[in-house]
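QA checklist item 7 of 12: single-chain prediction sanity check.
[x] sequence parsed
[x] length recorded as 313
[x] structure emitted
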Amino acid sequence: MLKFLFFAIHVLVPLLLILWLFWQPHRNKVELALHLAFTASTTLFIFFWGQWPMVGSYALRFVPPVLFVAAAIRSTRRFASVAPASGRRISSLIRSGIFVLFALLFGMLDIFAIRGHFLPGQPVKLDFPLKNGTYYVSSGGVSGVLNVHSKSPYPGMRYAIDLNRLGRFGQSSNGLFPSEPGRHLIFEQKVTSPCSGVVAIAQDGAEDHPAGFLEPGVERTPANRVAIECQDVTVFLTHLKNGSVSVREGETVAEGQLVGRVGNSGFSEEPHLHVQAVRNAKADPSEWVPVPMTFSGRFLVKNSLVRSGLPPV
């Protein structure tokens, strides 16, 4: 049921809203403008928030905006030719009220999403820790619309990012919502050190669990991870594959050195690489200070794409 709901939000909901705009005759320009604002704000929100590779392809992200433009062009040329009866006028007022309410709601969320694209403060400059593929950011940015970590009770998570790998057709897995970790394209991908430094933490031994919505209590399950002290910060690479950690605590590592492989250990709904940088890492996690990160000068946010270790196209 949850899988169907996730698919419906990405695909069915925007299509139904756009079809409504396409076919609905409007009595005047005010009613049309309200309907356009409602559909535009919801379509834009799904564009920013959506996890498109999980429902088939990253390219699907651009379908609703294109269809919206087509529906908007058609709707501006189509008005009701007769005045509605009193009952229809009431329903029209109710419909317009709904348009205003949701346009304001999703418009505010869109503003938060846009603001979440801007780099906050001075970042630490890192090398991208995944190679030989196209990767996308499934969570990242400075807004709760874009980054689930910003809602964490631990402040050190605020600028963390989650990374997944894309296939030829823009999909993140072989099949829709597979439970087998190996069917997710990022599973077992090599993870390299994003900077030169000293290994502060090297944890291994936690089992990789099936992908999917997590059961209660999983958030307390330890994850395999490596933490590297460099440039006055500590960089965490988390959810590594069981048995893949290839460095030891106290070891000096060079930028680009292999440290492990992507897995699905700990509190993780699907295989991915979690990356975060903090200061004061030796204190209690509630006292960690989050540090934004850039990779090749880019501040990565949700749905950013990175072509790593591949020739330019």
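[x] summary fact logged: The radius of gyration is 23 Å.
[ ] second reviewer sign-off
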